[in-house]
Amino acid sequence: MSTQSQFFTPTNIIQNAPESSALILFRGTSFPIQTASDLYHITGTGGPGPYMTDVQTQTTQLVFTGFNITNVPSSLSGVQMNLDIVRNGRVCDGDIYLTYNGSIIGQNQSNYDEDVENHLLNFNKNVYGGDNNFWGATLTPDILQDSSFGIVIRLRSHPQYPHRTGAMINNVRLSYYS
Questions:
Q1: Is the pTM higher than 0.85?
Q2: Alpha-carbon gap, residue 55 to 35, rounded angstroms
Q3: Where do runs of H (alpha helix) occur along the chain?
Q4: Which of 1, 106, 109, 130 is the most exposed, having the fewest neighbouring CB atoms within 10 Å of its CB?
């Protein structure tokens, strides 16, 4: 049976330079962190039905590092991130990745389920990874203990239905299983 470590919080939060001028910025680099404007659908771009659009806005990437994780045993069995977020309206995950040495590693952990009518069922997901989950990355105790190890988060507007709303990230916490 695996044991979960204590939770670690980041000491460094940066906002990556936008790859596009259309990306929504965040205000500040300390908790709580709010989107500087609403995430929305771009009107008049078409879409699958009346009033629907197929172009969504998304945020820049926020990078959380400096978790000061210590004493990671060699029997590492997974990594978990808890996200304390206020997802006003229908704000969804865009990117939820691990990062190491300034590069994204592993697989995107953003996840939401839709019903047959494209309604989001669990867009308020707040726990990612867990025991026996390495996020598709090769992780070692040395990587977890490195100050460059962390999380990359990007948010986006709802994949089907228009809205105008922002989000606020209250906290990001990491733990490991061994």
A1: yes
A2: 18
A3: 141-145
A4: 1
Distance of CA 171 to the CA centre of its chain: 11
> What pLDDT, in 10s, does the model give residues 17-73?
988 888 999 998 899 999 998 887 655 555 555 555 555 688 999 999 999 999 999
**What is the residue type of 63?**
V
Sequence-ordered list of residues with C-beta below 8 angstroms from that of 22, at least 6 positions apart, any chain: 57
Q: In DSSP terms, which residues pair with 63 in a beta bridge?
A: 14, 152
Taking the CB of residue 3, how many other CB atoms lie within 10 A of it?
11
Lowest mean pLDDT among 42-46, 58-62, 154-158, 160-164: 42-46
pLDDT of the residue at 157: 81
Tell me if 125 sits within 8 A of 112, measured CB to CB: yes
Q: Which residues pair with 101 in a beta bridge?
A: none
Closest CA to 67 of 98, 33, 22: 98
CB atoms within 10 A of CB 64: 26
Q: Which residues contact 124 (CB under 8 A, 6 or more apart)?
A: 87
In the chain, where the domains are located: 12-177
Q: Which residue has the tokens 């704000």?
A: 91
Structure tokens at 34: 């709010």
Q: Measured over all CA atoms, what is the biggest interatomic distance in the chain, rounded to whole angstroms?
A: 55
User: Which pLDDT does position 112 carry in this prediction?
Assistant: 64
